[in-house]
Amino acid sequence: MKPAPFRYFAPETLDEALSLLAEHGDEAKPLAGGQSLVPAMNFRLAQPAVLVDLNRIAALSFIRPDDAGGVVVGAMTRQRAVEHSELVAARAPLVTETVPYIAHAQIRNRGTFGGSLAHADPASELPAVALALDAQFTLACRSGQRVVPAEAFYTDLFETACGHEELLVDVRLPTAAAGSGFAFEELARRHGDYALVGVAVAVQRGADGTLIDARMAYLSVGPGPVLATRASASLLGTRGETEALRVAASLAAHEDIVDPPSDIHATAAYRRHLIEVLTVRALTRACSRAQEGA
Amino acid sequence: MDDSALIDVALTVNGTHYQRQVESRLLLSDFLRHDLGLTGTHVGCEHGVCGACTILLDGEAVRACLLFAAQVRGSTITTVEGLAAADGTLHPLQEAFRQAHGLQCGFCTPGFLLTLVPFLAENPNPDDREIRQAISGNLCRCTGYQGIVDAVRSLSRTGAPKPAHEAET
């Protein structure tokens, strides 16, 4: 057997799961879709003493509208269900556009929306999308719940604001407001591989057609998903002309917070080049969609 | 429950009901092969990359090496042994693989078949790009994939009838 021994619990309610996590502290690991955790266990890179399997907690698997026009996705909702959700497509089209880039269909059948977000792999797509959309994460522990914005959720490499006794229970995706536009771009050597670089952008035009909001978030360029705030701010007040997009892309590639790694797949310099190319592509599409929406 | 405690698992595989006791860390792929003797499910990388262990869990293609047997209590599973008819007649997709040289050593084949069965049910007339995307999560080191794509394409032409509004094209 590949994984090290562990004690297995399969609670059927959130309360039960939270009690188990409180009882076992940092010895316990919650198991969502298992598409990252189980490989790590098979390699024995992860050897949790206790596994709390969340797959039988039906209450954590849902997609529903919220009163503010957005959509709330339960943490245990399969990525495949999110991919095919009409509600998500209508209210958070950036998510619908991005999910097919996550690994392969067999992985998305099992992998969960919340699991991917909470795992905080810097190469994964959904954390960058959550940053671009300013998603709100609901964390629960035995004593109650708190809501953390995506920017505060991601703290470092595979590190989040979610404590050992807490669980991510749902994610609120704000409504796609009038005049908003989105796009996702990534480059991977083969479909489904980890992307060399990826970017998720969300922009919004005001009544006069100028950009009043812009959020550009990256994957595979730092210890976690990275929001290029300075570059995003440079777009405000412009109409999204080609030159403005080029300036924003160049700023993003050279922001302090953007620190792409060099590895066997690509050099840091090549990744910076990709940041510029992919950013212009994504912004061009997002701005033209925002035009349609205005 | 101590570390060695066994967990009861009852499930249906290829229409047969099984009841076993498993250790928590037993992977579903090993459970199918060692405990149930269904060695058609092949084990390649054991970390979710090669796709050889793909099975249908409640009708959906998943990696058996990324699930614990303890998790599938009450589920319905189909493995490659469940594809052919009881009299040995191959499933149309198996027959197409045979005709189009969609396999050579055969190690990856069960994973390809079980990836493609639900794909074709959902999308009976895929184009080449869709076919290649559908099999992107399965590795084959013999065929260069061409025979596999040919096999799927031959089915998409002759297998499922096209919807009426496409019949003219």
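qc> The first strand of chain B starts at residue 6 and ends at 13.
qc> done
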